[in-house]
Design goal:
Layout lengths: L29 H11 L4 H21 L9 H15 L16 H6 L10 H25 L5 H8 L12 H15 L4 H18 L13 H24 L6 H6 L3 E2 L3 H11 L6 E5 L2 E5 L3 H25 L7 H15 L8 H12 L8 H20 L1 H6 L2 H29 L6
Antiparallel strand pairs: 1-3, 2-3
Helix pairs in contact: 2-6, 5-6, 5-7, 6-14, 7-8, 7-14, 8-9, 11-17, 13-14, 13-17, 14-15, 15-17
């Protein structure tokens, strides 16, 4: 007979040390957490709601104008998503469409605005559902903060607008909501919460793959079995239903496998710098719905980044095997570290990837035991620079001007630093022996 996971006592084994014992950074101290963020950031529910409303209205205003920088941020919903919606209505996933590179569960998000279309147009319905997912994330974080005097909800509410209106015109908020709610449920003690959290992570994996990483840090034993089994059953069931109801449900694999080096990735920045130095003759062109670099060594660099992604996966497996100390923050910290590692080794780092990272950082900040506070702070300027890269200065980025290069170098340097810090701090908090 199996028994539920229980926190280890001092007598039964080592426990995770308090964050202050892991670092001398002021960001880890109880003074920083309570005095700074509780008094400044953890206000009453009405204040949080007011800030959410004001910032989201501002994002809506920007999207209504949609003329910032190169403009056209909303075209993906207005044209591409709306076109895909029509195909789904005919019972098929986009056949041989190079811009469709998403798991079949993404079709559910694209089809969901149809529920509101008797009253709203497609674009308006999509934005309304995105705001609803945003509100669900805020509510979930606020409930987690309330009992722990933490500040995850304030981080999410104030950080997401750094990406301007982009989050409202992509479906990454919906995917992030699934991962965030899954992690919050996994913090609970009941088997039902663990299963529901696993189911949400499995659903998220079918929507955009990366939410599956929310389960990388679940405590060994019953919690892992419950969550991982629920995730697998949910993903397989959904895949089967979609395969029966729609044709071409796995067509995205062809498009995704052929992706090159997008200009906003770390590899793209390296090629841009080489081009500016006159040692690489390639140039960007639109492929698979985005600007990618073409020219010599691009394929080799793409394979190198795939190898780095595999290396990141192996490191995560090694971490899980070696980890000996678990706290309530470990699953949250592991999820953020994992997604950061997969982000920086990706051949594609679109600006909306920051939505995922901000959401996971916000979940980490719902625990006083998290070691990811400095990582969360690094992600704030990274998000702001992502908005400069797209849409504000996107023409400069594509052209490879000094301004565009500077923005991309700074943004990607921050992401690389955040990934390295997250991996290091996770390992030190859970694997490295604690000095007596």
């Amino acid at each position: 007979m199996t028994t539920p996971d229980r926190p280890r006592s001092r007598a039964s084994g080592p426990t995770a040390p308090a964050p202050s014992s892991l670092t001398r950074s002021p960001f880890e101290s109880d003074t920083f957490t309570s005095a700074t963020f509780v008094t400044v950031g953890h206000g009453p529910a009405l204040a949080l709601a007011a800030v959410w409303l004001l910032t989201r209205v501002g994002m809506l205003v920007l999207l209504a104008g949609d003329s910032l920088g190169i403009g056209g941020v909303g075209h993906e919903v207005q044209l591409l998503y709306r076109y895909w919606y029509g195909l789904f209505a005919d019972g098929t996933f986009p056949p041989s469409d190079p811009t469709w590179q998403y798991p079949p569960g993404a079709g559910l998000v694209i089809m969901a605005p149809g529920l509101l279309m008797p009253w709203l147009g497609y674009t308006q319905a999509f934005i309304a559902l995105t705001l609803l997912a945003d509100a669900a994330v805020t509510l979930g974080l606020a409930l987690a903060d309330r009992s722990r005097l933490t500040h995850g909800a304030w981080y999410w509410v104030c950080a997401l607008p750094l990406l301007l209106h982009l989050p409202l015109a992509r479906y990454d908020v919906q995917a992030t909501a699934l991962a965030v709610l899954a992690l919050l449920l996994l913090k609970g003690r009941s088997p039902a919460a663990h299963r529901l959290g696993g189911a949400l992570a499995g659903l998220g994996a079918m929507v955009k793959v990366w939410p599956a990483l929310a389960l990388i840090g679940t405590p060994r034993g019953r919690t892992t079995r419950e969550a991982w089994t629920a995730a697998a059953v949910t993903a397989v069931t959904l895949l089967g239903v979609l395969a029966l109801c729609f044709s071409e449900s796995l067509g995205f694999l062809r498009q995704q496998g052929a992706r090159g080096i997008q200009i906003e990735s770390l590899g793209g920045t390296a090629l841009a710098l080489a081009g500016a130095a006159g040692i690489w003759p390639g140039a960007p062109e639109i492929r698979y719905g985005a600007y990618e670099y073409t020219g010599p060594y691009v394929s080799t660099l793409g394979h190198l980044f795939l190898l780095l992604t595999v290396t990141a996966l192996l490191w995560l497996v090694l971490w899980r095997l070696r980890a000996t100390r678990w706290s309530d923050a470990t699953p949250l910290d592991a999820a953020l570290a994992a997604v950061l590692l997969f982000t920086v080794t990706s051949r594609v780092i679109s600006p909306q990837y920051l939505v995922w990272l901000l959401g996971l950082a916000a979940v980490c900040l719902t625990s006083r035991r998290t070691v990811m506070r400095p990582v969360a702070l690094l992600l704030l300027p990274a998000a702001a620079l992502s908005s400069l890269a797209y849409p504000v200065l996107y023409a400069e980025v594509v052209a490879g001007t000094p301004v565009g290069l500077t923005v991309m170098v700074l943004r990607n340097a921050l992401l690389l630093a955040a990934a390295a810090a997250a991996a290091h701090r996770l390992w030190r908090a859970t694997v490295t022996p604690v000095e007596e």
